[in-house]
Amino acid sequence: MRGILFASSAALLISLLGTPFAIRLFRRRGYGQLIREDGPTTHHLKRGTPTMGGAVIIVATVVAYGFAHLATWTIPSVSGVLVLFLMTGLGTVGFLDDWIKISKQRSMGLRSGAKVVGQSIVGVTFAVLALQFPDPTGLTPGSEYLSFVRDTALYLTPPLFVLWAFFMIAATSNGVNLTDGLDGLATGTSVMVAGAYVLVGVFQFGQRCGIVFDSQCYEVRDPLDLAVLAAALMGACFGFLWWNAAPARIFMGDTGSLAIGGALAGLAITSRTQVLLVLFGGLFAIITLSVILQVGSFRLTGKRMFRMAPLQHHFEVVGWQEVTIVVRFWIIAGLCVALGLGAFYGEWVTG
After folding, report:
1. How many domains, in total, are found in the chain?
2. What's this model's pTM, rounded to 2 decimal places?
C-alpha cells in the first residue's frame, strides 16, 4: 500500500511543480493553442495559451510509478508496464497531432486517417501483448472473456478480444479528447475516474483468488500494481489541474487527452472491468454521444440537435458561464463514478 502513497504524492509534486516550467518553456517557443473560428467566441481569448501540457502528465505518471517501485523495492508488473506503453504510445500520437497544429498554424493536426492508423498500431500492439505473459497461475494481463465487474461467461476469442480492446481504447481516448474543451473539465474528471481505479485495484488485491477462497474472489493478474499506476495518474492530473483550472494557463492538448484515455482503457482491460468503464467514464460517454447524435441528426434530417457539439459547448452558446458548466459537469462525473463503484461493490456483496 505504500506504493500507492509514494506514487500519488510523487506524481502530484512533479506535475504541480513541473507544469510552471512547461508553461514558460512552451511560451518561449511559441507553442500556443490555436482556436477554431466556428467555436464559441469566448474561446478566442484563449488563443496563444501554451498547449501540449499533457506531456507533463505523462512524465509525472511514468516517473512517479518508477519511483514508487524504487521506494518499495518491488519490480514493476507486466500489466503496469503495458498500460504505461499504451499511455505513452497514444500520447505520442497526440503529440504529433499537437505539433502539426502548432508548426503549420492551423486548428486541425493529423488527418483523421493518420490518427486512426497511429491509434491502431498502439492499441492493437497492446491488445496482442495483453494476452501474453502468464503468471505462475496462468493469468495474463488481459482476458479473452468480456468483463463487467469481473470476467463474464462470454468468450470473445483472441481476434475478437483484440478488436474489442482496440474499440475500447479508441472510444475512451477520443471521449477524453472531446471532453477536453473547457478549462479543467477533462482533467478534473480524469482525477475521479483514476481514483476509482485505485479503489478497485486495492479491493481486488484484498479479495484476490489464492488469498480468499471464495467464489467472489477476483482473478486479476496484478491488481495492486494497477492501483499504484492509477494513483500515479490521479496525482499527475491533480497537480496539472492547479494550472489547468479556469482561467487555464496551459492546456493538455491531444498529447494529454489521448494518453489519459488510453491509460483509463488499459486499466479497465487489465483489471477485468471493461464495461464498468462506461459507468466510471459516464461523462466521457455522454459527451461522445452528443457528438454522434449531432452528426446523425444533421445527416438524416438536416437539423442539429444541439446549438453546438460537443455538449459542453451547447451550454456555452446558450449562455452558461464556463466555470458553471465545468462544476456541474464535474458533479455529473462524480455521480457516474459513484454509480460505478456502487455497481462494483454491490456485485461483490450480492454474490
Report:
1. 1
2. 0.94
